[in-house]
Amino acid sequence: MSKQRSRDTEIEVALRRELHRLGLRYRVHRRPVRAVRREADVVFGPAKVAVFVDGCFWHGCPEHGTWPKRNGEFWRAKIEGNRDRDANTDRVLDEAGWLAVRVWEHEDPAAAASRVREAVLERRRRLA
To answer: What is the mean pLDDT of residues 31-38?
Structure first.
């Protein structure tokens, strides 16, 4: 498992390529809120939008997530802990005035980029 990439995964790069194609500019792998030791995969600072690309296995996708049979108790605790941490991150960002957008690894990058773009444009309109 140590060989699993945590940054610049295929879906992450494809999403960033689509966001750039749509004319959006962003920062990569930044902490939206300095007090929280969690990095977002894509950050739109002025609009206060943080995008997280979640892997189906690691974050327990309801569509594609699987529960390993071998060492099942450990993996269930690990994946549910990841889900709890994600929910906590979303709550902390919300309290700080940020919008967390979650993208599953199985999503079409163009559709996900379009969803992110709408969120960013809406936040820009609201904050302007």
So the answer is: 89
Amino acid, single-letter form, for residue 39: E
Q: What was the pLDDT predicted at 65?
A: 81
pLDDT digits (tens, 9 = 90+) for 60-112: 999 988 888 899 999 999 999 999 999 999 999 999 999 999 999 999 999 99
Residue 85, token pair as written in the block = 């941490």
3 state DSSP class of 101:
strand
Amino acid sitting at position 107? E
In 3D, which of 50, 63, 65, 66 has the Cα closest to residue 102? 50
Task: Give dist(CA 46, CA 128) in Å, integer.
Answer: 10
Q: What is the rounded CA–CA span in Å between residue 124 and residue 128?
A: 6
The enclosing H or E element of 29 equals strand 27-30
Cβ-contact 107, 92 below 8 angstroms: no
3-state secondary structure of 67: coil
The pLDDT confidence band at residue 8, using thresholds 50, 70 and 90, is confident
